[in-house]
Fold each of these.
Amino acid sequence: MRRYGKHTDEDDVRVRPNRKGNRPRTHIRPKHEDAADGMVLTVDRGRLTCLVDDRVVVAMKARELGRKAAVVGDRVALVGDLSGDKDTLARIVRIEPRTSVLRRTADDDDPYERVVVANADQLAIVTALADPEPRPRLIDRCLVAAFDGGLTPLLVLTKADLAPPDELLELYGALDIPYVVTSRDELENSDAADRVREHLDGKITAFVGHSGVGKTTLVNALVPEDRRRSTGHVNAVTGRGRHTTTSALALPLGGDGAGWVVDTPGVRSFGLAHIDPSRVIHAFPDLEPGTEGCPRACSHDEPDCALDAWVAEGHADPARLYSLRRLLATRERHEGD
């Protein structure tokens, strides 16, 4: 250990030689104005598969982006080897601003939110009418996440050959959500896929649903040339399905509409710890003007809420107010209720 006296001389400090020179650190980052535009298709252990023009390119995130992560659907700027050849690696140097974000937490007590997909236009909530039984609370939570993130919801009801859809559709009728009802036989002969496709053309659609509802089967029918993993089965004891999709993946929807389908892993919970309830009202344009008379920080489900008088005066359907309050209260209820 070297000891110094009162009068140290820094000139004798040894500096390890560096062939590349000792350049001072700088906070100025390169602009990469010549970077190519791309879209993230999937993320796997730090490697991001991106579409650049008509080429599929594997890339990694630049260190200069810090902790900011890119997710499926992100529009990014890339530099480096963009040939898409085997064993080549590009670099993502910029993540463009997002137009929408679908987020969730593991549960309502988890402060860490996870971005599922970025820049999607709509959220297709896939639920089976039987085997497994529908879980309205989970549907409600997906709707809240969609409204909060700027996505238009779409209900896709599967296995109509096992149970009728009337009761479930009545529950969401006041929300005016578009829906498609399918059966297993229709999926096999592509009739259901064609009807679902009408809602997807020209849009980026994220598919969510808990395991066993037929989500991946539907995606396989929509994009037959790029089939995903084999479908799973529902456990006869627990009524739950087996996860067959382990990572989100964006797939091009063929045809004239040129849309995209984002298949996501099956979920068993959809935490809403990150949701600000005050933003959900924006999805109810017929009710939003009635909140002008609400007290500050109104939860819209309390005695002084102005929405009660707004609805009583005939400005909106009472069923709409009931639906809003049911969605706002969904954070307080367990999804299996």
Note: Residues 113 and 193 are 32 Å apart (CA to CA).
Amino acid sequence: MIVRGAVLREMGLPKPYAESRPLRIEEVELAPPGPGELLVRIRAAGLCHSDLSVIDGSRPRVMPMLLGHEATGEVVQSEAPGFAVGDAVAFAFVPACGECGPCAEGRAALCEPGAAANTAGTLLSGVRRLDGVHHHLGVSGFADHAVVSARSAVKIDPELPPEIAALFGCAVMTGVGAVVNTAQVRAGRSAVVFGLGGVGLSALLGAVLVGAHPLVAVDVVPEKLELARSLGATHTVLAGPGAVEDVRDATSGGADYAFETVGSGKVLEQAYAATRRGGTTVTVGLPHPSQSFSIPAVSLVAEERTVKGSYLGSAIPSRDIPRYIALYQAGRLPVDRLLTATVGLANLNEAFDTLAAGTSIRQVLVL
């Protein structure tokens, strides 16, 4: 079949993207699903910094590529057990094979065949169903249809609005998961979140959910700080040279947990400096591969500090996506507050300009 989607053929084109037009709406031939795969009618797809990082070249991928990884849709053909036509699904951006060493340990985010497929721009099986175009993180959700591995899909409540359902596949799973899975924050422990995009605010929601206190939010955009306070932050700090001391003051000497969601080595250093003795720093953002960060090595031992990475929110998607959706439906995880705007395929380049400017939380492509 022929699908219409947003194809990136060259990374690193200059901003504004409204003028350079890195994403071109093209017709691409999509082969039918093979064994263990699904054909899905895409209903909505979120615009994420991971997409922007491919567009600007800071997260290099094989070209050309049909972008979009935070998406939801309806199964229209199933070649996989457990899925039927009409099922509503959300996608995880790492297909978990279920058999490799990390999968056997319950660490689906670190699936080795899944990571290899994502790097190669293929589905989990190693094939491409898009003619002459690579898949993005096993999803390629900026299109009206996608073929995906069933290992990338999680069945969800069909009553959930698509523009909300899409958010659970990346922003919510990553941010909330960093708090509840990676850090395992306990009630009454202090926390700080550096960076209040979709993932950062999801981490904030996760920290509110588990009862972190005090809870500090840090960003360069005052409007995002206002939103963070309305979502449960007890303190807000404008990012800058004095941010670390402000966080330490708000948490009586340093936070028990710090979450860095910006994708910046410099911000990661600030997050580490903002924790107390025995504190844990969790980094969620994806910096350019050339970036590094520096910390006093002795502090890891003498102060029993911990630095942890969190990918996919250390999630098991088939367990966590339905769980987070249920919490949203119960009113305990107000994910809908993250939705800034909905856009169409024709407006994607302009929408990524907005994302790059840092003025949006989550824009969602509705198809």
Note: The first helix runs from residue 17 to 20.
